[in-house]
Amino acid sequence: MMLAILASLVLFFLDSRLDYFKPVRAALSTLVYPVQVTASLPTNFVDWLGDFFQEREELREQIAVLNATTMLQDLRLQKMQALERENMRLKELLGSSFRLQERVQVAELVTVDLDPFSQQVIIDKGKNYGVYVGQPVLDAYGVMGQVAETSSLSSRVVLLTDPSHSIPVQINRNGLRAVVTGRGLGEYLQMDFLPHNADVREGDLLVTSGLGGRFPVGYPVGKVVSVNFPQGKAFADIKVEPAANLSTSRELMLVLPGEKIRTEPLLTQPDAATAETQAAENAASEAASSLPDAEESVDGNNR
Questions:
Q1: 49 is a domain residue
Q2: Residues in CB range of 188: below 8 A, 6 or more apart
Q3: What span, in angstroms and rounded, lies between the C-alpha atoms of 252 and 93?
Q4: pTM, whole model, 2 decimals?
Q5: Are residues 67 and 183 in the same domain?
Q6: Count of domains in the chain?
Q7: How distant, in Å, are the alpha carbons of 55, 119, 121, 240, 241 from that of 186?
């Protein structure tokens, strides 16, 4: 027992002071390394598997967040595009109202009548906004129809394409008057009661004639797209394409009764030159009005 302890102390002293067994330790480490690696495989595999599933779950969460962000950005982009289109339509409406020089009220289309035999829509303005039956309705390009029925907060508008709707028009080129009637969804308007010798050409612009007292003169109604003269019929077959975008317009204009809006700039105070010119014109008109009296007095003296 003592010999073993003494031998251990000697070997410890030789190894710690002289590195006598260093090659032996290196050889033993080389032999033992595969055993160590094999022993650590289960632990390393469990750690790798945990990291794999954790990273996979994190990637799934990141993908879900990115997908949600992308969808939100797409929705915002669509909303921005819709607002941009609405802004463009409102600008067109504003420009149209100034071209027409009429007092108008902007309304928005709420619903469309699904009846294929009735071309009518509902707008978000009613009696509380001063809407009345027969009031002309336009979009930025021309006449859409007229108000057929009103309630407190909404109104029903009958479109030009409704078979029950007719509107008096005149050809902008020559002033020829006629009547245009609707023919239903997806059909051209029909220009009625014109004989074969009527001066109508393809491309003629039709505007409201003002007859009937509902539509003021000059609103665009449509354009002639075909002119036929069928044999055996008393009237020509004339088809008209509506000027208004009946199937796409969402913002509409209600023409208000009353005087036209003055779009030219108003002069606040006339300048001195304008005042002098006006005074001279007044004096000349007074002199001209007194001239017959002077001539009459001269004739009386001669007599």
A1: yes
A2: 225, 226, 239, 240, 241
A3: 8
A4: 0.57
A5: no
A6: 2
A7: 58, 10, 16, 12, 10
In angstroms, rounded to a whole number, what is the distance separating the alpha carbons of residues 247 and 225? Answer: 19
Last residue of a domain, one of 38, 70, 101: 101
Q: How far from 207 is each of 115, 174, 202, CA to CA, in Å?
A: 28, 11, 15
- Going from the C-alpha of 156 to that of each of 162, 165, 243, the distances in angstroms are 13, 14, 21
Question: Each residue's pLDDT tens digit in the chain (303 positions)?
Answer: 777 777 677 766 666 666 666 676 677 677 777 777 777 777 777 777 777 777 778 888 888 888 777 777 776 776 676 677 767 766 676 665 545 556 788 899 999 987 878 899 999 999 999 999 999 999 888 899 999 999 999 999 999 999 999 999 999 999 899 999 999 888 899 998 899 889 999 999 999 988 888 888 888 999 999 999 888 888 999 999 999 999 888 889 898 876 443 333 333 344 444 444 455 455 444 444 444 443 344 344 443
Question: What CATH number does residue 149 fall under?
Answer: 2.40.10.340
As a whole number of angstroms, the distance between CA 145 and CA 244 comes to 9
The answer to whether residue 78 is domain-embedded is yes
The answer to the question of residue 33 being in a domain is yes
